[in-house]
Amino acid sequence: MIQGRLPRGSPGDKxxxxxxxxxxxxxxxxLLALGNRAALDLWRRLLAEPRKPKLSRLISPSHFMTHKxxxxxxxxxxxxxxxxxxxxxxxxxxxxxxxxxxxxxxxSFLKMVYEPCNRFFEEVxxxxxxxxxxxxxxxxxxxxKELRMYGLQVPKKLGGTGLTNTQYARMVEILxxxxxxxxxxxxxxxxxxxxGILLFGDEHQKKKYLPDLASGKSLAAFCLTxxxxxxxxxxxxTTAEVSQCxxxxxxxxxxxxxxxxxxxxxxxxxxKTQVKDVATGEVHxxxxxxxxxxxxxxxxxxxxxxxxxxxxxxxxxxxxKDVKVPVENLLGGFGxxxxxxxxxxxxxxxxTVSALVGTIRxxxxxxxxxxxxxxxxxxxxxxxGIIQEKLAHMAMYHYVAESMAYLISGNMDMKVQDFHLEAAxxxxxxxxxxxxxxxxxxQILGGVGYMKQAxxxxxxxxxxxxxxxxxxxxxxxxxxxxxxxxxxxxxxxELQHTLEDPLNNTAVLFTxxxxxxxxxxxxxxxxxxxxxxxxxxxxxxxLVTKCVDLLSEAVEHLLLKFGTEVIxxxxxxxxxxxxxxxxxxxxxxxxxxxxxxxHNLPSAIHEKLLCESWCYKASERVRWNLKAVxxxxxxxxxxxxxxxxxxxxxxxxxxxxxxxxx
Length: 662
Prior knowledge:
The chain has helices spanning 26-33, 37-48, 81-85, 104-123, 127-133, 138-146, 165-178, 180-193, 195-200, 203-215, 337-373, 385-413, 420-445, 447-450, 456-463, 473-499, 506-521, 538-562, 570-598, 604-630, 633-651; strands at residues 16-17, 23-24, 57-58, 70-71, 220-223, 239-242, 248-259, 266-276, 283-293, 299-301, 315-326, 330-331, 375-376, 379-380. By secondary structure, the chain is of the alpha+beta class.
């Protein structure tokens, strides 16, 4: 029973008598008169839906959303393409047209900066030497300073290069193409290390630290992860207490796996600070961010970690023992550390995607060069269908990842605020696409690809970390799914409230229930990209809108079935996230291909083929994943997975004995 509804037969009940002594509400009568039986069934289903568990709130993973309970009623309307597809809406404001944000002057400046940097990496830096010796040599570090690579996005007035996000994205492609380890050194420095100062620092903090950081005189690091705190940032144990004199925060704790940890001069450190609730008197821990200098007494770094990949980058633990941090080094305000951390990660992800785009492009070039020269059975191997399919898939992965990188950077340059879901999806996609493409490259190269001399095995080792850093892909998937469900839940709750007063909301109800009924029985709801995409892509665009309808209906099914307990349904959440990723990727390539076709670019027809092929495969994955979300037959599979896992854990390994019995 929905709260606020009058029971049947009460004096205020507006229901009308119906045949055989039953009653039917006014809205039900109208739906029946319209012959909309599906909408009528859905109406009754929503009315009968129990209020327990309530659709009032979801709790999101604390590393990516607030660790407090978030109420649906507080969720604002979003301009995010991804957030809206969970509600069955296609909002194209931030998607179409594909951004073209650089002026001629900005493009000319970018070329002027780009060329010497690219030449430097080809002629001076040696990634194989760096990997073998597990360090970046001084000649490379000095050269990077001369190229002003340490402060690419720092304003010129503070000693930086002053690049826009799109210009920055193009520059870091160089790092991905040539040397991911050097890319991590520079990324840990400016994409996260001092990004908090750039985003949240006051004028004093910016003037004090950014000039030296931008010139490379000082190096920065981002200190969030701890031995007992990874994705769950709210569980950090490092503390900062105000000194008796009130001039310092006393910092104690340890951070681990910190990129640049052993060579950085400036750290952005996150610590738990105590906050007293004025109303209750209770003391709670809130995270605050601090600018900490290595020169402060009590700051020490551990030995460099031995790693699988990105060996040339420095990774260490960093310890803080009774470190006196001046109160003026509090970053972003007291208790706002979580906000600082999430904004830094969110703003830095597009740079990671761009670097990986450079890597994918390089790997494809290696695979194509080999396939075009290698002959087997009398033909070049690029003429065989099994190799052609690999190369085509590799090209599609690159096209999607590159489109994502520049769509987000363009949106950021246009001051779009709501892009956190798109950034998370792009990071997941690019890191997994790069791994898949590199794996296929090795397969195409055969034995050559497995040897160190080809350089692909180093790239593969370097790539593996990107599915872990800046939020593991598993946690990011849960974040995407729960954030999307949160938006959809807010809309569903509004509909439930509307149902409490149907006579004054008839138009809204007809619209909403009609859309939901159509989704349930598989009829298109009428959402369309006509007039948005190029006319040659309309059939492909229809795949996107059909998938949006399917996702919306599946999301509503999960919310009505599980309520807030949906946060524990990770088998379902993963598939919902993968669906959202596929739909977003379809939208991105439609946008870019439309731009190319509309502007008659030389590659337009090729891009059309990439777009059509990608969307076809993605739409098939969507149908498969959503079938796994809704079909009851999959529940046995999920239960089996849970049972098998639990038994393996209890046994400390596989449960069954060897075939020979010992």
